[in-house]
Amino acid sequence: MQVRAKKSLGQHFLTSEEIAARIAASLGLTARMPVLEIGPGMGILTRHLMEDENVKLTAVEVDGESVAYLKENMPELRVVAGDFLKLNPTEMLGEKDSKSFAVIGNFPYNISSQIFFRILEYKDQIPVVAGMLQKEVAERLASPPGSKDYGILSVFLQAYYDVEYLFSVPPDVFAPPPKVNSGVIRMRRNGVKSLNCDERLFRTLVKTAFNQRRKTLRNSLKPFWLNARVAPDDHPEFALRPEQLSVNQFVNLTNLLSTNR
Fold first, then answer.
1. CB < 8 Å & 24+ apart, contacts of 160-163
2. Segment 14-31, tens digit of pLDDT
3. Which tens digits make up the pLDDT trace of 199-220?
4. 7-189 has CATH 2.60.60.30 classification
């Protein structure tokens, strides 16, 4: 039985055992932990994960053909038929006490950003994430302030995770080959429990700033500083563009603009 790659699901099946082994090893678990693999397809990464004694694996797969393939060829694997973006950890892992779990996968490129926004919703339960996605997206997530690739999701993820770009993967190790290069990243939860600011306002400021990233913050955030009665000339951050600000600078700016709201 073979699984047909479906364009609508953004499926490109990895064929290199060497790269699959490198991705599996990138989790670097030192103690046994539940691990959720997103989009296992025909299980090339899955097999390597199942060989790791520290991995208690569950695979979540939205494609019915892939689910049938995995159940036939890996009967010992727990497979959940469903959409990672719609299920909660208890439903996926089947454990009411699943306080902590890792995430890994060859993430579908057409929904990779949505996957990472979903991971942020469970950031206090997910200490480590590893996986492959489109190279330019992977580079964006790991980009530091000052880079042209630094953006909204870079700030949101780096507020709570240390993000590393590990290695690149060419198109010819997939079936069918994608039209882009791929990249593998690892994210480890940092020590930040709270940003010590109004986090809803923080997210709004970051999105507003990057949606007009060619403008300085003096211009893109004008409604906010007018409302807060802040003089932007007194604060050097307002002369910068959003990609020049670190997470901490965005936090400080949020606190400044929330004082008199």
1. 160/120, 160/123, 160/189, 160/190, 160/192, 161/123, 161/129, 161/187, 161/188, 161/189, 161/190, 162/187, 162/188, 162/189, 162/190, 163/187
2. 999 999 999 999 999 999
3. 999 999 999 999 999 999 999 9
4. no
